[in-house]
Amino acid sequence: MKCPHCNEMQYYSSRFRKRSGIIPFIIISIIMLGNRFFGPSYISVVALLGSIPLLMGVYPFFVELSNEEEALF
Prior knowledge:
mainly alpha; two-stranded antiparallel ribbon; 2 helices; 2 strands; elongated
């Protein structure tokens, strides 16, 4: 991403990339566990489809940027 004010490249921080990779895994795991214990239902489909706009709405508030590209590990 380019900064609109200084026109320098900005990169996602390694901490943000790690957290953003874990969140979808947790949501899908919760939905799958619900299916395992309570049986498959339309509620799990609605929960999965409902979580997508929720994540997209919250995503910009949790983005962390850095001035240089960091290694993931």
